[in-house]
Amino acid sequence: MAAETNTDHKRIRKSPVERRQEILDAAVRLISERGYNGTSVQDVADAVGVTKQGVLRYIGSKDNLLSMVYLENYNVGGNVSDFKASGLPGSTTDDLRLPAYLRYLVHYNSQRRMLVQLFSVLQVETFNPDHPLHKEFADRQNSIWKYYSGFDWRIPPSFSSFDEIRPTVRKALEVMDGIQLRWLREPAIDLNEEWAEFEPLLFPSPLWDGYR
Asked: pLDDT tens, 122-169?
């Protein structure tokens, strides 16, 4: 009976979609632990239980795997459109508040620890100009600012335009990156509580009262 069960197990075939996702999940875990440079295609294959050629059939190359991991896993959620669909205070089109969105983003990231760790590891690795994602990370601040600028935020009237908020956005992202690094270490802190302490410093009273 046991022999029959083992044979049946070996005959199980996963769909291409399932296998591809399995490869990406393994890559996320390995790269978040070892970095891109410390992870090989063979490592991913071993984690999934397929051959190296089997992995390459789905990803094409190691560099392509990294792009898939970053663009299709880390970079797909927690965006402004998701926030607007959340129904949370400050998320409506006629009352879109930047502090409220950043608060939402921190909460979103607090629920995906491994992906935040992946991002943090890649952020350091990409200082190397030969890294496949070097340009992506070097342009990150500009890309985010351009993306945020495409929305009609409700900001205090003392600002003549959203362009004047750019230094605040830069500082907020820098603080968020730093808090996430501390959150990833032991003993762990509460990511949401830590952000709540910094938010009044980034968006102080009375300037931002009614706009958070």
From this structure: 999 999 999 999 999 999 999 999 999 999 999 999 999 999 999 999
Q: Give the C-alpha separation, 40 to 137, whole Å.
A: 21
12, 86, 97, 158 from 79: Cα distances, Å: 37, 11, 13, 27
Would you state the pLDDT for residue 9? 44
How would you label 178-192 residue by residue, b for 16+ Cβ within 10 Å and e otherwise?
Answer: ebbeebbeeeeeebe
The answer to whether residue 187 scores a pLDDT higher than 80 is yes
DSSP labels, the chain:
-HHHHHHHHHT----HHHHHHHHHHHHHHHHHHH-STT--HHHHHHHHTS-HHHHHHHHSSHHHHHHHHHHHTGGGSS-HHHHHHHT-TTEETTEE-HHHHHHHHHHHHHT-HHHHHHHHHHHHHTTSTTSTTHHHHHTHHHHHHHHHTTS-----TTSSSGGGGHHHHHHHHHHHHHHHHHHHSSS---HHHHHHHHHHHHS-TTTTTT--
What would the pLDDT profile of 61-104 be if each residue is shown by its tens digit? 999 999 898 988 888 889 999 999 999 999 999 999 999 999 99
